[in-house]
Hints:
The protein is an alpha+beta fold. The chain is built from nine helices and nine strands. The chain has helices at about 5-15, 65-75, 125-140, 160-175, 180-190, 235-245, 270-280, 285-310, 320-340, and strands at about 25-30, 35-40, 45-50, 85-90, 100-105, 200, 210-215, 215-225, 230-235.
Amino acid sequence: MKEMNFDALKEFLGEELNCDSQEIEISSLSGGFSNLTYLLKTPVGKFALRRPPFGYKISTAHDMGRESKVLEALQKAHYSKGPKPILFYESEDVLGAPFFIMEFVEGKVLRNKLPASGPIPNEETLRKLSQNTIDSLLELHKLELEESGLIQLGKPEGYVQRQISGWTERYNRSQTDPISEMDKAAEWLGKNIPQTENRGFIHNDFKYDNLVLNPDNLSQIKAVLDWEMATVGDPLMDLGTSLAYWAQTEDADILKMFNLTHLPGNFTRKEVIEYYSKHSNLNLENILFYYAFGLFKVAVIAQQIYKRYKLGQANDPRFAALIEVVKAAAKKAEKSILTEKI
Length: 342
């Protein structure tokens, strides 16, 4: 993590929050591979600050203003699992980049290892967490769009086509190694876009490590994090991305780095699809397409971050292994397409 001088930020927060800047503590929160998150401990409460990563910016995925707008719109839509936005600061004069501040939700986040302290989820807990995760995804997909203003955050018409074109272009721009399976997946996706267009509000990165859980009951979801890619589009594209992250026991180990879904007790991908289908009015007959897209998208995200690492714009040692994620996800996509199995 690059060292940062927080003096200007503390002074800014002291004025904005009407508290003593000398009593503000700022620390880095461990987490994902993109936007940086910091914990702010102040005399008036705890908050989370989000800012873009250092160096190369990946499209609009790190648009702080957008993430803040999404959280504001979710409040209007009466969605209870989005952290409350506090403020957005567009200028770079305080922190060297735009940033926004939201409420800090106390809880536990399950990453790619079981918790080192506190309760450890058993099979029953993970089973219930699987169900609650898909229920939360369904809740999001069914939000009212017009009166809440959520519709203004995206353009659902032609969404799938734009996504296939956009992610293919992103891959071409960030490619560092020849990976034939990626080229084949991109070609297949371009030729197999479903004719039916679905519409709903979507998260676009919905997985266990973006969920804040009740530490006393790890199957209960308190909040959903990382809304920078949320938009209005096809909910099945969102489901496909979640399925791509939903690793199972037999999957390559490198694909288990994002989730604990491979542990006993969790839904299988087949059970996820069946549960979603049972509780949704959407037609899932083309779910193979959405799953293959999800794997391709996960691979491109890893590829983009890996390129930053290769260019020396990010020195996090975790990034060195991301090219293996690209290869594994691409192979998984090709195998799924050829076998028509998820």
